[in-house]
Amino acid sequence: MIDVRHLSISYEGSPVLTDMTFRVAKGTILGVVGAGGVGKSVLLKLLCGLIQPDDGDVQIDGLSIRGLDDDALADLRRRMGMLFQNYALFDFMTVGENVAFPLEQAREDSPQDIQAKVSERLSEVGLPGIERMYPRELSGGMKKRVSLARATIAGANILLYDDPAAGLDPVTSSKIFSLIRRLHSSEGVSVVVSHDIDRMVGVCDEWLVLHQGRIWFMGDVHAVRASNDPVIATLFDTQPQEAVR
Amino acid sequence: MTSFLTRIGGTVRSLVVLTGGMFLLLMKILRSFVPMACDSRETWRAFYKVGVKGFPIVVLTALFTGAIMVLQSGHYVARTGATSLLGWAAGFAVFAEIGPILIGLMFSGRVGANNTAELGTMVVTEQVDALRSLAIEPTAYLVAPRFLAMTLMLFLLTAMGDLFALVGGAATAKVMLDVPVGIFFQQVVDAQLLDEYWLGLLKGMVFGMSIAVVSCYFGLRASGGAAGVGRAVNASVVAAAISIFVTDYVVALLWGAM
Question: What ipTM was predicted for this assembly?
Fold first, then answer.
């Protein structure tokens, strides 16, 4: 479903990601891990077409993102939902308007249906009844959950999560990962970037380890467990035994 | 010598990139009007913000502009007794040149700077990326409504500013030279300054366009967190002021040639 071929990108002459090739099959939740600044968020933005690679290509269901014009890219993005690392909530809108935004732009539901869906999704992320509040009135964890609600409300089947648990307490973090698992469609793909490997283990089907701007490892949890690679050991070392169990 | 030439070349290149980027942004904005792709709620919000933020500063600027014009000419008028020229002098200076320029500069400092800061903050907090990820084109959604609002509102604010400038001028003429308010306004009417009035309104509209393009351009190119937004605002205010004088010159030139 997602086919990445020889993807490379650099910033101001410094390579960020180099020659990345991997596939993510339908129904998979891919966990992307690596040290800070290795290019995980950049990879998500490349998958979404928010930035263009220097070389290589990203194909979604055989459709190359590179060759698409603005309209075709917009059509493709309607099938995607992205949770941003820094929430990226529209600060001039209320929480309700933020979450409703993808549905309002799609113009497929009545205002009453949109309102009902927004209430339901906010309840699912544990924030019922905050529709009238503004993002500035929320804590970091609440913003993250509102952002998750906005990313998933339109029923996109390609979901990209950039550090969904950053800044959250362990209980909320667990809830978020459970929600990611529950919202994942067997017909879709989810890509989760996080440092919370402990909680990712119960959610991700496949793992992609980035190191020094390259794919260092890709495989399932059993392959992770079987690996003696020092980079993988270091990454999973925070809770290595629990993480790969 | 080589380093001097390199610096000149670098500056010229930066200028070409800057003006080219602004021109391309203008083209993208105009393209989003055919067919009309502006979000109605965002457009209304832009009109409200631009109008509300711009009105007080325009009124204040206009009142003092008119007053200063009369104050400056008042000494000569008092010395020569040519009070009948007072309305004409104030109207001529305010309508065609000083009024639109000062109103444009103040509008740029208030509304344009705010616009750059708002868009710049949206860029560095990934809100613009979030829009794109939701299949919304930021130029049509964020920039086009602001362009429309600034262009039309500065046209209207200049029209209102002209009135307030005359009020400021009339009040000063009454206090300084004891010229009755009614006589002052009659002098303005008798001076037949309709051409100057329309020229001023046209300038206001063109200034609104240039402030919108410049402020949106720098806002959308902000990077590097809060410090980057600050730099973008600074650059935007300077560039908008330059663009006001350049467009003033071009409009006056074209108007004179007509």
Answer: 0.87
